[in-house]
Sequence to fold (306 residues):
Amino acid sequence: MLVAPRTRHHHRPCPPSSPTTAHKRSTSLSPAKFKSLLRLTNTIITPNHGDGNKTASTAATSNQPTPSSAGRIKRLVLSPESRAKLNALPDRDFYSFPRFVKHVNDGFLATLTDLYRDRLRPGSEVLDLMSSWVSHLPEEVAYKMVVGHGMNAQELARNPRLDYFFVKDLNSEPRLELASESFDAVLCTVSVQYLQQPEEVFAEVFWVLRPGGVFIVSFSNRLFYDKAIGAWRDGTAYSRVQLVVQYFQCIEGFTEPEIIRKLPGSSVARESKLPFDWIFRFLGLLGGSDPFYAVIAHKNFKPVYE
Fold:
């Protein structure tokens, strides 16, 4: 059964949502389970069984949830200028060609996987926002379901951990066509710098999280410079962390954000006597890991597990 869209508390109206195609990979999950994730009227479901596509339309119920202050946008964090990108061409065009590369180094990814191993419980239902062709979830941990979102279907189809994925430009349509309280965790890896409507997206994450669910936003100093928003391009490492903290704080109901930092400090970099070695360190060419930052908050409360 689909969950009807709730009354929104956003400062700005969301743009009209268009039908979104979601792809189902080979999985033991039933079609009914897949449909239960979706909330929009006329959402198109496209199973991917390798024997041709089957398309079905679904309709949302007319019952509206009772409005609540939880999940509302309390204030806008960004000004119009700070949302702007140097490259104003549509993001769909920019990401239309698949990039089968890793955007951060192995040290960063190992730290991220350890964080997921520590914070995500086995059997969780996970939404991986702005995902790609690789998964950073620990291989040995089994999750009930992993749904991926991104901008390139070819990349997402290569991701071995995704049970389903969907393609959507969150900058033009920040609304998620997913049911309320359908995930235990939402992840966003090295992509938050590209969000032009982060307040809307964080409100949507709050909507899809179950009470106690966790949102983990991780990032480094790597970026497509002309596609990052002005507030990120012009910021420092400290101000970027605080920017993500403000994204959480502008939504009613998230817990106080937790900040995790792991900065490079390899012995190779410390002991180097090469001329101009500071330039190599600045460019990340003298060993060590990319700087690791994560900002974490929970919906309503932080669970305590034995």
Remarks:
- The domain at 75-298 is CATH 3.40.50.150 (Rossmann fold).
- DSSP finds ten helices and ten strands in the chain.
